[in-house]
Amino acid sequence: MATIFSKIIRGEIPSYKIYEDEKYFAFLDINPLAEGHTLVIPKDETDYIFDLSDEILSGLSVCVKRIALAIEKTVPCKRVGIAVLGLEVPHAHVHLIPLKTEGDINFSKPKLKLSQDEFRSIAASIRKNLELK
Ligand code: 5GP
Predict the structure, then answer these.
(1) For the chain, how far is it from start to end, CA to CA, in angstroms?
(2) What is the rounded CA–CA span in Å between residue 126 and residue 44?
(3) Report field, pTM of the whole predicted structure over 0.90
(4) pLDDT tens digits, residue range 98-115?
(5) d(CA 64, CA 96)
(6) How many CB atoms lie within 10 A of CB 18?
(7) 8 Å CB contact between 105 and 97
(8) How many CB atoms lie within 10 A of CB 69?
(9) Domain annotation for the chain: domains and CATH numbers
């Protein structure tokens, strides 16, 4: 069965899209730890990140870097943190989270509740900063 992330890639489930190319896709996490919390995924459905081919994993890292730099330009933060859990959705993904303090990357914390307009505006700003690169 297709993962929820494959459905997002195909547009069957809406998302606040940040980036897409032939192999990768990025979108805002719907339960963010911080404004700008983004997920970057390979389009090919593989559960465990370390089962990805070297080629796809390397490409994912480059994509993650590009998007992290755009997030950093968009959201006031000290730096962008990176995490891989995969405990909930069995489709490899990297979390990018703007950090002001160490506690901002604590996944046990209550998630932010943002309005649709807030999600849309953050996504548009990150996309703009991606284009400027
Ligand atoms: P993990 O698998 O890394 O433990 O967590 C999966 C992440 O995906 C969670 O942070 C969760 O909020 C996010 N997520 C789960 N379902 C959806 C969805 O339908 N849309 C979006 N944008 N994010 C989702």
Answers:
(1) 37
(2) 24
(3) yes
(4) 999 999 999 999 999 999
(5) 8
(6) 23
(7) yes
(8) 14
(9) 4-132 (3.30.428.10)
26's tokens = 């990025």
- Rounded average pLDDT over 5-19: 98
- Residues 115-125 have pLDDT tens digits of 999 999 999 99
d(CA 44, CA 36): 24
Give, for ligand 1, the residue of 18, 19, 29, 116 to mutate: max count of ligand atoms closer than 8 Å to Cβ.
29
Q: Which of 47, 89, 119 to mutate to test the pocket of ligand 1 (most atoms within 8 A of CB)?
A: 89
Tokens of 40: 């970057």
Residue 93 annotated as catalytic? yes
pLDDT digits (tens, 9 = 90+) for 29-78: 999 999 999 999 999 999 999 999 999 999 999 999 999 999 999 999 99
Q: Provide the pLDDT confidence category of residue 133 given band limits of 50, 70 and 90.
A: low
